[in-house]
Design goal:
The complex is a heterodimer.
Chain A (H helix, E strand, L loop, with lengths): L4 E4 L5 E4 L3 E3 L5 E3 L4 E4 L21
Antiparallel strand pairs in A: 1-2, 2-5, 3-4
Chain B lengths: L16 H11 L13 H13 L16 H29 L5 H9 L7 H7 L3 H15 L4 H4 L7 H14 L9 H11 L15 H15 L4 H13 L2 H13 L4 H32 L4 H27 L15
The chains are: A mainly beta, B mainly alpha.
Organism (chain A): Nocardioides humilatus
Keywords (chain A): 2Fe-2S, Iron, Iron-sulfur, Metal-binding
InterPro entries (chain A): FeS-contain_CDGSH-typ, MitoNEET_CISD
Chain lengths: 60, 337
């Protein structure tokens, strides 16, 4: 199994490298389609589990 | 749908004495006259764009060796000095404001959050007609059909973590190992689906100087090692001002019921650029300034140039549309209304 690396961006998403899929809170499996993906940590995204930058307009 | 790749670019129509002389020289031996000056922004930016394109795809009927023609390079340098000085002057207030923040990522965020008062994505989301949206695609085609190419020049000029982060970002821009996912190809498919020409340079005669200037800034920063900080700052600001606007552009395309390929291009960039903005601001610019602290002011200058030139584009395009005018230049032989 390859190594998966997760980098949390302060005030932003988690950048995930090396993952095959991400499972959301309902147990649904989302395939990873690019070398690095941004996983939403604020819960405001409209395309969970992926970050869509909504955190930037939500205020801190 | 038919997407033409690798088609030769036709030399555009001159817009004044300087671009006329450059076109003449490109068809000949590269010897430009020394006594010709640009008469206006159109003549100036088309001339500079012509000289830059020699380093990308060049033009049909132009000798490839003219890329390194001394007279053409001398002219390019003179135009670049003027353009860079104008840009630095225009960007100084934005850079000064950003320098009040701590650390490169927050400084870049301060620049990226600049609100000029006119939002092109908001207009396209809510108000634009179908024809206006298609004009926007035509204007953007000059860059998106060679998306990420100008930033690739910086790769051999970086090292360590900044180089790795740029390569990681560009791997995604350049399709992530899949030619069908090249971002430039996604845009070509969007153009073709919308009934527009999809080959690079097809619309250069219709695109006004403010859009040429956007492209010229990227080439200016990309082609000079001296300006590698500005190139990466520009990239960061571009990515940091892309994800949320692309959602608006997607909603505008859906509202106007444009073909799926148009929405798909912007849909791809909502998620892609939510990743890229962090790679660019922290991974590239943060690491670059960490390794070369002297580049900090140029990183901020490049970011400010991106935001400034985009604000000019937004103002000019929305102003034309709200006055019922086209943003595109008249086709050759067509009278300007």
């Amino acid at each position: 199994m390859s190594e998966c690396e997760i980098t949390v961006v302060p005030g932003g998403p988690a950048l995930v490298r090396g993952a095959g899929f991400v499972r959301d809170e309902d147990g649904n499996r989302h395939e990873v389609g690019r070398a690095v993906v941004a996983v939403c940590l604020c819960g405001l995204t409209q395309r969970a589990p992926w970050c869509d930058s909504t955190h930037k307009v939500a205020g801190d | 749908m038919c997407v033409r790749e690798g088609a030769a670019v036709i030399l555009p129509e001159p817009r004044g004495p300087l671009s006329a002389d450059v076109v003449r020289a490109l068809r000949a031996d590269g010897e430009v006259r020394r006594d010709v000056e640009a008469t206006d922004e159109e003549d100036f930016h088309l001339s500079l764009w012509l000289l830059y394109e020699l380093h990308y795809r060049s033009f049909e009927g132009v000798d490839d060796s003219l890329e390194w023609s001394p007279p053409l390079l001398a002219l390019r340098r003179a135009l670049e000095e003027q353009f860079e000085a104008e840009l630095r002057g225009a960007c100084a207030p934005l850079v000064a404001r950003a320098e009040q923040a701590d650390g490169v990522p927050d400084q870049l965020a301060a620049i990226a959050s600049f609100d000029s008062g006119t939002s092109l994505p908001l207009f396209l989301q809510r108000e634009a007609t179908r024809d206006q949206y298609l004009e926007f695609l035509v204007q953007r085609s000059l860059y998106h059909l060679k998306e990420s190419d100008p930033q690739a020049w910086a790769l051999p000029r970086l090292d360590g973590p900044a180089k790795v982060a740029l390569a990681e970002l560009q791997y995604d821009e350049f399709g992530g190992g899949r030619p069908e996912r090249l971002h430039s190809r996604l845009f070509a498919e969007a153009l073709a689906a919308a009934g527009l020409e999809s080959s690079f340079g097809a619309y250069v005669n219709r695109v006004p100087s403010y859009t040429l200037a956007v492209n010229n800034a990227m080439s200016l920063f990309g082609l000079h090692r001296r300006l590698r900080g500005a190139a990466m700052g520009h990239l960061a600001a571009f990515e940091m001002t892309s994800s949320l606007p692309c959602r608006r552009l997607l909603q505008g395309a859906d509202r106007l019921e444009l073909p799926e390929a148009v929405g798909h291009y912007f849909d791809e960039h909502v998620e892609a650029d939510a990743v890229h903005e962090h790679l660019a601001s922290r991974g590239i610019c943060g690491a670059l300034v960490g390794a070369e602290p002297d580049l900090q002011s140029d990183v901020l200058f490049g970011a400010a140039a991106c935001v400034h030139l985009d604000a000019v584009v937004a103002e000019r395009m929305v102003d034309a549309w709200t006055h019922g005018q086209s943003t595109l230049l008249a086709e050759a032989g067509e009278n300007v209304a």
